[in-house]
Design brief:
Layout: H1 12-36, H2 54-106, H3 108-117, H4 124-137, E1 140-146, H5 156-165, E2 169-175, H6 182-192, E3 198-200, H7 224-227, H8 233-247, E4 251-256, H9 263-271, E5 289-294, E6 297-301, E7 306-307, H10 313-319, H11 329-341, H12 345-352, H13 360-371, H14 382-394, E8 400-402, H15 416-423, H16 428-441, E9 451-453, E10 461-462, H17 465-491, H18 496-522, H19 531-541
Parallel strand pairs: 1-2, 1-4, 2-3, 4-6, 8-9
Antiparallel strand pairs: 5-6, 7-10
Helix pairs in contact: 4-17, 10-11, 11-14, 17-18
Length: about 575
């Protein structure tokens, strides 16, 4: 049985009441229209019969009408032709796509070989190649450090490559100085200036785009007085110009560093306009960019340094090139866990205004509930809140600071002669005075509001493109050997003879695996049976710029950068 539709009949009282309301509304509208003086548009009376040349005027009016109709018809025909052309083009494209798909299935092997040769712009090899270009082309290299964790932003491989080159100078730029307490900043400046010339810097934000002709009106009022200010730019430009005068030539200045330390923002601040793209996402700069500051100075913007996969969890969380949106949830959770383990729990609870938590998962759950990041059914969105947290810690939202090491121990690649060589062309007294002026001009957070952070020491990075290839080949060999071992374990039987044969095959596999990894570490066909010969080959190779710091952490005489600062 079908359900009957609801009746639309009303009681007489209700119907009359509605009709009365409508009449009152119409009366009100007519009254308001009368007050405004709106009148009905008068109809065209036409040409009066007593007017002279009436017939001529009527003929002209008809001709005008005909012309308008003809124009409309032409426009309609043109539109139809354009639509037909578009349809034909779409049909051709669809036919071509079908052919390409058919041909692609046949020649899939050839296309794969071609795509493997072409490097993607987002690949690690491409980043390393562009970074090498910047280092080779530069006379002075600015290593940009985040003032909240300067030691974690230093790359020993980069510093050794520059110091061993002989004719290049390295200057440390301590960026984001407005996010740390004043006393902590002064301590870091005193610590770092003993190794390399150090400049205190605060980049400008909300820069005007150079392609923008007129300022767009903003709905919300933004305080542009403090945000657009840049501190330390005069000091840095003066330092570079004096170095250019001593060299008697135009100099090229390379800007390098880990992701989100403010490389492109610093160049924009020196230029005065938004010459380079900036953003909170990691790896915005994909290739080398040249920006002319003046006639004697060129700035070379570079992609970020790639953090070594063997680094600790904290270094990979804060300094890794991989974007948080693309990375897996396990990597993000590990990064958040590492950050919380290196901070004071009480200060984190006070900063985020959440109750006490037992572990990382509970912390993320509480934070997601507080910020309203929930899924369907009110379930806290733990994955997205973890990504937001990582972006906040690498961006400029959270104020935290780390203490410099109590005793200053120089790394192996940095001797007193190297330090003197790096500082000889710069006027350090003037630099110190300019830094003091910059420090006095800024407003800083109080030590109580800034989270105390325990640095994990220098972050190892990969500079040479060859290193990335070698690591990839090693991992491939490891994976193939693991697959082979799993297959052997699956097919082994319970008999003693077969077990013995499987063990022998495993031993042989492990020996071949060790040989392959040893060859991959040694590089272009150079193999040696002993560790001493390998160390000699690597020390000779490290003098060139193309391959830097070939020594691995497994060697006995390698310097461990993480032990002094944990």
């Amino acid at each position: 049985t079908e359900l009957r539709k609801a009746s639309k009949r009303l009681t007489c009282h209700k119907r009359y009441k509605i009709q009365k309301k409508i009449r009152e509304h119409h009366r009100k509208v007519r009254k308001e229209a009368k007050k405004r003086g709106r009148k009905k548009p008068k109809k065209d009376p036409g040409v009066p019969s007593a007017a002279p040349f009436k017939e001529k005027l009527l003929r002209e009016a008809e001709q005008r009408k005909q012309r308008l109709e003809e124009l409309k018809q032409k426009q309609k025909l043109n539109r139809q032709k354009e639509h037909e052309k578009k349809r034909k083009l779409e049909a051709k494209k669809n036919a071509a796509n079908v052919k390409e798909k058919a041909e692609g299935k046949e020649s899939s092997g050839k296309s794969k070989a071609k795509t493997n040769k072409l490097l993607d712009k987002n690949s690690k090899k491409s980043f390393c190649r562009e970074l090498e270009k910047v280092i080779e082309a530069s006379d002075v290299i600015l290593e940009v450090l985040d003032a909240r964790d300067p030691m974690g932003c230093r790359c020993p491989q980069l510093e050794q490559a520059v110091t061993c080159s002989g004719d290049k100078k390295l200057v440390l730029v301590l960026n984001k100085i407005d996010l740390v307490p004043k006393e902590n900043l002064e301590k870091w400046l005193n610590y770092l200036k003993k190794e390399f010339p150090t400049v205190a810097f605060k980049s400008a934000t909300l820069m005007k785009d150079r392609t923008m002709e007129q300022l767009t009106r903003r709905r919300a009022r933004v305080d542009l007085s403090r945000t657009t200010e840049c501190f330390g730019s005069k000091c840095l430009l003066k330092l570079l110009q004096e170095h250019g005068k001593t060299q008697n030539k135009a100099i090229q200045v390379g800007v390098v560093g880990f992701p989100n330390v403010g490389k492109s923002s610093m160049i924009n601040s020196l230029k005065g306009v938004r010459a380079c793209n900036v953003g909170l996402t990691r790896g915005v700069t994909k290739s080398m960019q040249i920006v002319h500051i003046d006639k004697q100075t060129k700035m070379l913007d570079s992609p970020s340094i790639i953090a070594d996969p063997s680094s600790n969890a904290l270094a990979l969380a804060l300094r890794s090139i991989i974007d948080t949106e693309e990375s897996g949830s396990a990597d993000v959770f590990e990064g958040v866990d590492a950050i919380l383990n290196h901070c004071s729990k009480q200060q984190v609870v006070m900063h985020y205004s959440i109750p006490d938590f037992r572990n990382t998962e509970e912390f993320l759950t509480l934070l997601a509930q507080k910020r309203g990041m929930l899924k369907r059914g009110g379930v806290p969105d733990v994955e997205n809140i973890a990504k937001v947290l990582l972006c906040d810690w690498t961006g400029a939202k959270i104020s935290y600071h780390s203490q410099p090491p109590e005793s200053q121990r120089l790394p192996l690649y940095l001797t007193e002669d190297k330090i003197a060589e790096m500082q000889e062309c710069f006027k350090l007294k003037i630099l110190e005075e300019e830094n003091n002026n910059t420090v006095q001009a800024l407003k800083y957070p109080s030590p109580a509001s800034s989270i105390v952070f325990q640095s994990a020491g220098m972050t190892n990075g990969t500079i040479a493109e060859n290193k990335v290839i070698e690591e990839a080949s090693e991992w491939e060999d490891m994976e193939t050997s693991k697959e082979g071992e799993e297959e052997e374990e699956d097919f082994t039987e319970s008999d003693d003879d077969q077990d013995d044969l499987a063990e022998e095959e495993k031993d042989a596999k492990e020996e071949s695996k060790a040989d392959v990894t040893r060859k991959a570490k040694l590089g272009n066909g150079q193999t040696s049976p002993t560790n001493s010969a390998k160390q000699i080959a690597e020390s000779e190779h490290s003098n060139s710029l193309s391959i830097s710091l070939d020594k691995t952490a497994d060697e006995d005489d390698a310097y461990d950068f993480n032990t002094d600062y944990v």
